[in-house]
């Protein structure tokens, strides 16, 4: 595996980890409560489970796109667009890490204390997003060549 593919591989592992965690907290309402789920969601366990499994599926699909971009599984449809969309969404979501960290350090004002798990999840999103975007940029030509070969 080329070194540029390691970024996509690592980011996909984080996405699969997110899928496992999301499924687990969907099954265990106490874990959802500890991670900040609202009372409305906690009072409806079937909805909590359905949303947890839906989000786990979304994270798993992101992981599959990362593995496909790394060349470890067959090429998925709209690979470059999918990698770009995943990378952009995760990076935009993860940018909040910077502001959260500045608030924790006292540089920016915070209306309330920032829970540690919010800080960690934002860091993971930022890492995944940058992994997808940098891996996509580094492998852009290779991924385009694979698309042309698949179409031929």
Structural class: mainly alpha
SSE run = HHHHHHHH
Q: What are the low-pLDDT stretches, counting only 5+ consecutive residues below 50?
A: none
* Shape category: flat
Count, helices: 8
> Would you tell me the overall average pLDDT?
90
Query: How many beta strands in the DSSP annotation?
Result: 0
Helix proportion range: over 70%
Radius of gyration: 18 Å
- How much of the sequence lies in strands comes to under 5%
Overall domain count: 1
Termini gap: 24 Å
Largest sheet: none
**Quaternary state, please?**
single chain
Explain this structure.
The protein has 152 residues and is mostly helical. The chain has one domain (3-151). The protein has helices spanning 3-27, 29-34, 39-42, 45-69, 79-94, 96-104, 116-138, 140-151. Helix 1 (3-27) runs antiparallel to helix 7, helix 4 (45-69) crosses helix 5 and helix 6 (96-104) runs antiparallel to helix 7. The protein starts with a helix and ends with a helix. The model has no long low-confidence stretch (mean pLDDT 90).
Key features?
152 residues; mainly alpha; 8 helices
Layout of secondary structure:
Elements: H1 3-27, H2 29-34, H3 39-42, H4 45-69, H5 79-94, H6 96-104, H7 116-138, H8 140-151
Helix pairs in contact: 1-4, 1-7, 4-5, 5-7, 6-7
Summarize this, please?
The protein is 79% helix and 0% strand.
């Amino acid at each position: 595996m080329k070194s540029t593919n390691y970024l996509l591989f690592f980011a996909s592992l984080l996405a699969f980890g997110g899928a496992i965690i999301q499924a687990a907290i969907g099954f265990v309402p106490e874990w959802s409560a500890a991670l900040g789920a609202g009372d409305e969601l906690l009072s409806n366990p079937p909805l909590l489970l359905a949303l947890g499994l839906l989000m786990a599926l979304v994270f798993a699909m992101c992981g599959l796109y990362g593995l496909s971009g790394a060349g470890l599984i067959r090429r998925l449809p709209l690979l470059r667009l999918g990698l770009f969309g995943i990378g952009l969404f995760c990076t935009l979501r993860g940018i909040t890490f910077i502001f959260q960290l500045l608030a924790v350090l006292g540089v920016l004002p915070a209306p309330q204390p920032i829970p540690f798990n919010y800080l960690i999840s934002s860091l993971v999103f930022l890492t995944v997003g940058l992994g997808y975007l940098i891996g996509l940029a580094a492998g852009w030509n290779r991924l385009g060549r694979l698309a042309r070969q698949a179409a031929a």
